[in-house]
């Protein structure tokens, strides 16, 4: 019997619904494979502002650090738009506190959902299997920011060190070694000094990985190429802000952002796993959310943080089986399929573990 401590940050909007769905599936895994998952609910985001007055309470950080991993739903919403500290500040803070500097976002087109992709069939004939490796604790989101007293201007600093670029680069190259051994480094080196450093550092680092093919691409071209020919990409490595944008684009190509997971990792086994979508407050509490992204995020947690590869595969296989049976939540529903809610989708996947 293996025992693991999991901190649950359910968050805002649909967050509680989708995390509860993932817990339903994890409980089925625990029962079948004789594991014990001990869950601790903690607050972050808008719900933390409501309860504690801050988006990231110290207690949340302490519990997450003491856990084997963290499962996150979603944070934010218009309710907190006028707060002094936005809910999203908690997300940036927890990443920094846990030292989670790399974000892995796989974008895979499932054959059952090919019709849900906005791209035409000819664009997808070679499939889609892209891993976006996004730097997570540097760049413009963490740089110095200033606003003029009279509000006439504002600035945000994009700053990277060689060390920061090297460590995210290593994640990308190591990831590529397990895949098709191709890395595209995305920057804006024709304009930004920070990108010139990024490109130079990636080029030097690539010498340590002679088996991996490294190419460089400007971010605007990368966005265009993802829409024109997504199959050309294997691993994309890029900065915080560019990764934020490109990973959402790659997920949309896959049919729905409600399907795709992400893993935020650092130098330890403790990671934070979350769906790539937002809190969707417009459908919160209506049982319309798609829990699959959170469920497969939990599967990533089992494999990458707990070393439970068989259990992780069981979750992904169960998701495929339920999709093959024709069940769909509203975001991926099409004529001829079976419409179900968030709770039922999670229950169906749990039943097929």
Can you describe this structure?
- The protein is α/β, with parallel strands linked by helices.
- Helices cover 39% and strands 21% of the residues.
- The chain has helices spanning 15-33, 46-52, 58-65, 88-98, 162-177, 193-206, 219-228, 240-253, 292-304, 309-324, 342-351, and strands at residues 2-11, 35-42, 69-74, 102-108, 129-135, 145-147, 154-156, 182-187, 213-218, 235-238, 261-265, 272-275, 327-328, 338-339.
- Strand 8, helix 6 (193-206) and strand 9 (213-218) form a beta-alpha-beta unit.
- Helix 1 packs parallel to helix 11 (342-351), helix 5 (162-177) crosses helix 6 and helix 9 (292-304) packs antiparallel against helix 10.
- The longest helix has 19 residues, at 15-33.
- It is globular.
Blueprint (SSEs and pairs):
Elements: E1 2-11, H1 15-33, E2 35-42, H2 46-52, H3 58-65, E3 69-74, H4 88-98, E4 102-108, E5 129-135, E6 145-147, E7 154-156, H5 162-177, E8 182-187, H6 193-206, E9 213-218, H7 219-228, E10 235-238, H8 240-253, E11 261-265, E12 272-275, H9 292-304, H10 309-324, E13 327-328, E14 338-339, H11 342-351
Parallel strand pairs: 1-2, 1-3, 3-12, 5-10, 8-9, 8-10, 13-14
Antiparallel strand pairs: 4-5, 4-11, 6-7, 11-12
């Amino acid at each position: 019997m293996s025992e693991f401590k999991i901190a649950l940050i359910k968050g805002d909007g649909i967050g509680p619904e989708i995390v509860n769905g993932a817990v339903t599936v994890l409980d089925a895994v625990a029962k079948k494979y004789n594991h014990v998952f001990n869950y601790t609910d903690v607050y972050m985001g808008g719900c933390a502002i409501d309860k504690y007055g801050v988006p990231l309470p110290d207690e949340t950080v302490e519990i997450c650090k003491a856990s084997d991993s963290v499962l996150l739903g979603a944070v934010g919403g218009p309710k907190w738009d006028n707060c002094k500290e936005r809910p999203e500040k908690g997300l940036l803070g927890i990443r920094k506190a846990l030292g989670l500097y790399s974000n892995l976002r796989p974008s895979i087109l499932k054959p059952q959902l090919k019709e849900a992709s906005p791209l035409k069939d000819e664009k997808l004939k070679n499939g889609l299997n892209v891993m976006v490796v996004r730097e997570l604790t540097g760049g413009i989101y963490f740089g110095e920011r200033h606003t003029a007293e009279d509000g006439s201007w504002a600035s945000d600093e994009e700053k990277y060190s060689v060390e920061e670029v090297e460590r995210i680069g290593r994640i990308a190259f190591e990831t590529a070694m397990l895949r098709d051994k191709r890395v595209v480094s995305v920057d804006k080196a024709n304009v930004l000094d920070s990108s010139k450093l990024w490109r130079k550092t990636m080029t030097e680092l690539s010498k340590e990985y002679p088996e991996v093919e490294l190419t460089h691409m400007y971010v605007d071209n990368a966005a265009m190429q993802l829409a024109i020919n997504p199959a050309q990409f294997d691993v994309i490595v890029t900065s915080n802000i560019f990764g934020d944008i490109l990973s959402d684009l790659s997920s949309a190509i896959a049919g729905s952002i409600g399907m795709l997971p992400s893993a935020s990792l650092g130098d330890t086994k403790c990671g934070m796993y979350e769906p790539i979508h937002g809190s969707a407050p417009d459908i919160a509490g209506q049982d319309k959310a798609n829990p699959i992204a959170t469920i497969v995020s939990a599967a990533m947690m089992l494999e990458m943080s707990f070393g439970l590869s068989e259990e992780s595969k069981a979750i992904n296989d169960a998701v495929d089986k339920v999709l093959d049976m024709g069940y769909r939540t509203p975001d991926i529903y099409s004529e001829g399929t079976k419409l179900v809610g968030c709770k039922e989708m999670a229950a169906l996947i749990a039943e097929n573990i």
